[in-house]
Amino acid sequence: MSSVIPELTEAFRTGGGVPYEAYGQDALEAIGLGNRSMFVNDYVSGWISALPDVEAKLKNGGTVAEVGCGIGWSSVALANGFSEVTVDGIDIDEASVAQAKDLAKEQGVSDRVTFHHTPVEQTELTGPYDLVTAFECLHDMPYPVEMLAKMRELAGPDGTILIADETAEESVEDNTNLLGNFFYNASILHCLPQAMVFPDAAGTGTAIKASTVRSYAEQAGFKSVEVVDIENPFFRFYRLAA
């Protein structure tokens, strides 16, 4: 993160941002590998199992769209966990998508996992999908309401939307702890500036509150937002109903 300090200080002076690409390969891999263990070990056995109706669909050859798939570990882990499932991963970062494609080949799932380099709002994918996910990226999105509206469209009337994002609390005072410090530092160094590159970006930041997620979801047309009972120190899980 320190490699972009000059650009970062200028962005704070001007109200601009720092492009995701400016952080380089090390940051790309650090983000992707930082969550890898959760995707490999917990995604199928813990997160999906907490949604029995979704789990049943995926066991029978369900379809999934993963928004903000990064270097691909979430999509690949799901394909490894369900032998009949097909996954479309979507990401705006070209380098991440290229690496994700290589990963799918290495893991032997490239016949069922496809990655797409596009902003989610502009994807030509239509669905409907049984499951549409976004893991730790809603807070990164310049246009979170538009993103959620597109996810709602991809899921159709019968699909499930699963969001996982930070376990930040509602007030600054309640975030003065180890996790809160991490969230705010990550926000200043990376999450906020990479979003602020885009015109009129929401600028949510890493310390995203449950009330913020609910507000975005309501604006995107969702009728309910349920916090799913999944134990995780970093992520809070939301199931959105169209």
Characteristic terms for this protein:
globular, 242 residues, alpha/beta, Rossmann fold, seven-stranded mixed beta sheet
Describe what this molecule looks like in 3D.
The protein has helices at residues 5-14, 24-34, 36-41, 43-47, 52-59, 73-81, 94-106, 144-155, 178-195, 210-219; strands at residues 63-67, 86-91, 113-117, 131-135, 160-166, 224-228, 235-241. It is α/β, with parallel strands linked by helices and 242 residues long. The chain has a single domain, classed as Vaccinia Virus protein VP39 (Rossmann fold, 3-Layer(aba) Sandwich), CATH 3.40.50.150. A 7-stranded mixed beta sheet has the order 3-2-1-4-5-7-6, sandwiched between helices. The mean pLDDT is 96.
Quick recap:
The chain has helices at residues 5-14, 24-34, 36-41, 43-47, 52-59, 73-81, 94-106, 144-155, 178-195, 210-219; strands at 63-67, 86-91, 113-117, 131-135, 160-166, 224-228, 235-241. The chain has 10 helices and 7 strands. The mean pLDDT is 96.
Which structural category fits the helices and strands? alpha/beta
Apparent shape = globular
Q: What CATH architecture label applies?
A: 3-Layer(aba) Sandwich
Return Rg in Å.
17 Å
